[in-house]
Amino acid sequence: MNSIRPLDLSAVDQLGPRARRCVYWQTDGQHSDDQPGDPEFEKEAWISHVSLEWGVCGQVAREGDRATGAAFYAPPAMVPRAACFPTSPVGSDAILLAGMSIEDGAPGGAPTSLLDAVVSDLRRRGIKAIEAFGISASDTGDVLSRDMCGSESCIAPTGFLVEHGFTVVAEHETHPRLRLDIESDHLWKADVERALDQLFAERGFATRTLRVLSGATARHGEDIPLAAPQAPRARRQSR
């Protein structure tokens, strides 16, 4: 059964290979160094910095002893890539969803479970809204980050975000900006969903698709999977 835990410094080693190496959000795609950095070291340094300065900045999904995915979030000022989108800036009262990495072979409900855990954590911390940059095209022409990761592999599809209650607040053909206002009045719906899923799992029945995000009103619909990993493209690499 898929389990979710907060990403703190003790959980960095539980990240899967894609989540651990992806530094798309930790680079701005413009400034470069003389020598390429180590993506894993840079990612761990970013997690450490945000965790110490702000608090938990991610959720990790695992199935048994295997990592299935991770979601990251932080104040936009702590996310270098946040200012690079055509629909920037993020609202001053919102936290930014800074990447969702789904590992190979992850169960279909992993993206929804991760997003649910993110919203639950932010609701408990008194955050009023979360914003995200969606992706609405298969080829955005983005400069790749040091790990050869591009936006189509670590940004949630616009359709997935809309299905889970986000609304578009800044239109764009490839990277619209979306927002989810977190409402504590709807928490009980997600609690009921999770209790039923746990009961079904204990009885050996297949779990249902989670349709309600904790603390937010989500539209009913099936999960829209995040993009599968793609082969690196021959494009200019930011360093």
> In CATH terms, what is the fold-level topology?
Aminopeptidase
CATH superfamily assignment? Gcn5-related N-acetyltransferase (GNAT)
**Strand percentage, roughly?**
15-25%
Shape: globular
The CA-CA distance between the termini, in Å, is: 39 Å
Overall number of strands: 7
Uncertain stretches: 143-147, 208-212, 217-225, 227-239
Largest sheet: 7 strands, mixed
CATH class: Alpha Beta
Give the domain tally: 1
Mean pLDDT: 79
Number of helices: 6
CATH architecture: 3-Layer(aba) Sandwich
Helix content: 25-40%
The helix-and-strand class reads alpha+beta
Order of helices and strands: EHHEEEHEHHEEH
**What order do the strands of the largest sheet run in, or round the barrel if closed?**
1-2-3-4-5-7-6
Estimated radius of gyration: 17 Å
Could you characterize what this model shows?
The protein is of the alpha+beta class and 239 residues long. The protein has a single domain, classed as 3-Layer(aba) Sandwich (Aminopeptidase), CATH 3.40.630. It has helices at 17-21, 39-53, 110-124, 151-154, 158-163, 187-202; strands at 2-6, 58-63, 66-74, 94-102, 129-133, 167-170, 177-181. Strands 1-2-3-4-5-7-6 form a 7-stranded mixed β-sheet. The radius of gyration is 17 Å and the shape is globular. Residues 143-147, 208-212, 217-225 and 227-239 have low confidence and may be disordered.
Write the SSE topology.
Layout: E1 2-6, H1 17-21, H2 39-53, E2 58-63, E3 66-74, E4 94-102, H3 110-124, E5 129-133, H4 151-154, H5 158-163, E6 167-170, E7 177-181, H6 187-202
Parallel strand pairs: 4-5
Antiparallel strand pairs: 1-2, 2-3, 3-4, 5-7, 6-7
